[in-house]
Amino acid sequence: MKIRVSAVQYHLHTIRSFEEFAMQCEHYIKTAQEFGTEFVLFPEFFTTQLLSIGSEQGTSLTINELPGFTDQYKTLFSNFAKDTKMHIIGGTHVINKDGRLYNVAHLFYPDGRVEEQAKLHITPTEVHEWNMSPGEGLRVFNTDKGRIAILTCYDIEFPEIVRMAKAKGADVIFCPSCTDDRHGFHRVRYTSHARAIENQVYVVVTGTIGSLPTVDFMRANFGQAAVITPNDIPFPPKGIMVEGELNDDMIVTADLDLSLLYEVRERGSVTTWRDRRTDLYVDWEKENIEG
Q1: Alpha helix (H) ranges present in the chain?
Q2: Rounded Cα–Cα distance for residues 74 and 94 (Å)
Q3: Distant-in-sequence, close-in-space partners of 186: CB < 8 Å, separation ≥ 6
Q4: Are 21 and 49 in contact (CB under 8 A)?
Q5: Secondary structure element (H or E) that encloses residue 8, with its range
Q6: Domain that holds residue 94
Q7: Closest to 48 (Cα-Cα) out of 129, 150, 158
Q8: CATH number of the domain that 155 lies in?
Q9: For residue 269, how many C-alpha atoms fall within 13 Å in the half-sphere facing its CB?
Q10: Collapsed DSSP state (helix, strand, coil) of residue 154
């Protein structure tokens, strides 16, 4: 089975209304639709652009006010998914649940369903500056094109959680990210390659670009979208199926052949998933079956 995926290098800039945000998102959605995309990925924290609107009094909005846009955001992207028949990973959006802030990825299905995956590992900035809380559990999502997982930015830097996702049957990991400099960008990018090699899965990653001068901690962004593969003969030698131009406003698209994953897991040059030493460390397949 093949699936076509697109990843958006979302350009952050100051806007004046929710309608401007909606029009920019629609531009990327329509572009992906013209390419025949079945899954489209937006980056982490891209909805912080809404904070640049400011208040009616002309003051800056803070992260605590971003959950106030949740209903509008969910309605907008749910309608996009239903109208285009695409699966949309709507980046992440900050929600308030029981008085606590969570950084949550949203999966919008073509039939109108909306599923959530909270970010599990949160950065020091998210903890100390934004007082955010980590999610509590990993989910793997069934689609008519296979099983996927959504692991946000810092999550991809922890090999255990991706092992768990693969053990639960995920063949594609979507990784919305947001990094403000080269160091953070390369941490996410290099570990995405490692996770693809270790688990023989595809990783689709993207990030924010541009700047929000009036939004704290969103003034600098360094991003690039990529579709990353295992490093074996059926795939590109560098494990990169497609990548965008650094810090350019654009969208990248590629076809993922799931049958190639099954092939290399059985008879690849290396069989990293099959050759795990589960006598020495946790067998997440067994843990999931028994759990």
Answers
A1: 18-34, 70-84, 124-128, 159-167, 182-199, 258-267, 284-290
A2: 12
A3: none
A4: yes
A5: strand 2-12
A6: 2-290
A7: 129
A8: 3.60.110.10
A9: 8
A10: helix
The pLDDT tens digits of the residues spanning 176-209 come to: 999 999 999 999 999 999 999 999 999 999 999 9
For residue 65, count CB atoms less than 10 angstroms from its CB and return exposed for 0-12, middle for 13-18, buried for 19 or more: middle
Residue written as token pair 């040059």: 269
Instruction: Establish how many alpha carbons lie within 13 A of residue 87's alpha carbon, considering only the half-sphere containing its beta carbon.
Output: 18
Q: What is the model's pLDDT at position 167?
A: 96
Greatest Cα pair distance in the chain: 64
Whether 72 and 20 have beta carbons less than 8 Å apart is answered as no
Find out whether 253 and 37 touch, Cβ atoms under 8 Å: yes
Catalytic residues, by residue number, are 44, 119, 153
Residues 6+ apart with CB under 8 A from 54: 60, 61, 214
Token pair recorded at residue 100? 């606590």
Task: Express as a percent the part of the chain with pLDDT over 90.
Answer: 94
Global pTM value? 0.96
Helix/strand/coil for 284: helix
pLDDT digits (tens, 9 = 90+) for 119-157: 999 999 999 999 999 999 999 999 999 999 999 999 999
How many structural domains comprise the chain? 1
Of 249, 280, 260, 286, nearest to 12 (Cα)? Answer: 249
145 and 171 Cβ atoms separated by less than 8 Å: no
For residue 264, give every residue at least 6 positions away whose Cβ sits within 8 Å of its Cβ, in sequence order, or none: 200, 230, 232, 234, 235, 271
Q: Is 211 exposed, middle or buried (0-12, 13-18, 19+ CB in 10 A)?
A: middle
Torsion angle, CA of 239/244/250/256, rounded to 10 degrees?
A: -10
